[in-house]
From TrEMBL:
Membrane found in the keyword field: no
Entry similarity comment: Belongs to the acyl-CoA dehydrogenase family.
Protein keywords: FAD, Flavoprotein, Oxidoreductase, Plasmid
Domain Acyl-CoA dehydrogenase/oxidase C-terminal: start-end pairs: 227-378
Name of the molecule in the record: 3-sulfinopropanoyl-CoA desulfinase
Positions of transmembrane segments: none
EC numbers for this chain: 1.3.8.10, 3.13.1.4
Record organism: Pontivivens nitratireducens
Length: 379
């Protein structure tokens, strides 16, 4: 049986209490207004929770498992507050893995303390899962690069101090060399478009980006031209267990709401929870959520133990695909258990349904995760 360590239990107790007392009362409003929750960001900053996956040299706990526990507990009551942790951590992994020492010194301390905010931009109108198909160009000009192109669905870019922008540096080959550039958001030629009106994940806005003759120094390239992008992309495997943790939190939260509802609603002279068919639904929801949690924790613990490469990619892909599919299944069943009330905005259960759908798509669709898993099995 997988057991959390003492450090993870301390994180779990703290976050669970804060989530119930301070976050849960705000969750419905954050979703309804689709406004960035500055108060939640400041709370996370004050609690020092941004530090959880950071190396000890930056004052962190260096624990992906602890990070997943925190994300799950926040996700149980508010997807968007959990999302604030993730969007802060994704640039960290890329810079740690692929960045120069100068880049690490410039950006990581501020990210760790919550004094800087970052974002990652890969997706374009014609290329989502196919990163190699991006069209944004980075043209060398003396000691600088000039970036031109359009991006979509860049989450957190409206609040970010910098964005990691993927652009092609190769010439001639339509699917040529790609690199990441650290672009400060006040750089001339870098423009953030209006926020998207999203179905779920509404409290952390996503925007289009427009780069027109955007000049950055060569030192803005993440790492070196030959290995920087590959190393940074490999680091995204490191963040994939956190996506799974959000899904587990979403599933558990939907189950929590459903159980409370069916225990207090009556039909045909008994509570809804007394019907055998309902009991079986609840049993499946609980089992699926528990299984997803174990996969996520296993992947996070493997990362903390130093597992890398194809083995980690396999574990992380299984955790992401299974946990997010589980979140969708459990949230769907939870809406069903609410009956007509489930489709009313008066009840928060439809928020879990909408957020779960987002999780199956972002950070690598579940179809892409299945490609990763099957390649590992068939190799």
């Amino acid at each position: 049986m997988f057991k959390l360590g003492e450090d993870q239990i301390l994180v779990q107790d703290l976050v669970r209490r804060v989530a119930r007392e301070k976050v849960a009362p705000r969750a419905q409003e954050i979703d309804r207004t689709a406004e960035y929750p500055h108060d939640m960001f400041e709370m996370l900053k004050e609690l020092g929770l941004f530090l959880l996956p950071f190396p000890e040299e930056y004052g962190g706990a260096n624990s992906m498992l602890s990070a997943c526990v925190a994300v799950e507990e926040f996700g149980r009551v508010c997807y968007n507050t959990a999302y604030l942790l993730l969007v802060q951590w994704v640039p960290i992994g890329a810079i740690l893995a692929g960045g120069t020492q100068e880049q690490k010194d410039r950006y990581l301390p501020g990210l760790a303390k919550g004094e800087l905010r970052g974002a990652l931009s890969l997706t374009e109108p014609q290329s989502g899962s196919d990163v190699s198909g991006i069209k944004t160009k980075a043209r060398k000009d003396g000691g600088d690069y000039i970036l031109d192109g359009n991006k979509i669905w860049c989450t957190n870019s409206g609040m970010a101090d910098f964005v990691l922008v993927a652009a092609k540096t190769g010439t001639g080959d339509e699917r040529g060399k790609i690199n990441l550039f650290i672009v400060d958001t006040d750089t001339p030629g870098f423009n953030v478009g209006p926020k998207e009106d999203k179905m779920g994940a509404r409290g952390v806005p996503s925007h289009s980006l427009y780069l027109e003759n955007c000049r950055v120094p060569a030192s803005a390239m993440l790492g070196d031209e030959e290995t920087g992008f590959r190393v940074a992309m490999a680091a995204l495997n490191d963040s994939r267990p956190i996506i799974g943790a959000r899904a587990v939190g979403c599933a558990q939260g939907a189950l929590d709401h459903a159980v409370e509802f069916i225990k207090n609603r009556h039909a045909f002279g008994q509570t809804i929870a007394d019907f055998q068919g309902i009991k079986w639904m609840v049993a499946d929801m609980e089992t699926q959520t528990a299984a997803a949690r174990l996969l996520v924790y296993q992947a996070a613990a493997a990362l903390d133990a130093g597992v890398k490469g194809k083995e980690l990619a396999h574990l992380a892909a299984m955790a992401k695909a299974f946990s997010t599919d589980t979140a969708m299944k459990v949230a769907t069943d939870a809406v069903q258990l609410f009956g007509a009330a489930g489709i009313s905005n008066e009840y928060g259960i439809n928020r879990y349904f909408r957020d779960a759908k987002v999780l199956q798509i972002i950070e690598g669709t579940n179809q892409i995760q299945r490609n990763i898993i099957s390649r590992s099995v068939l190799a």
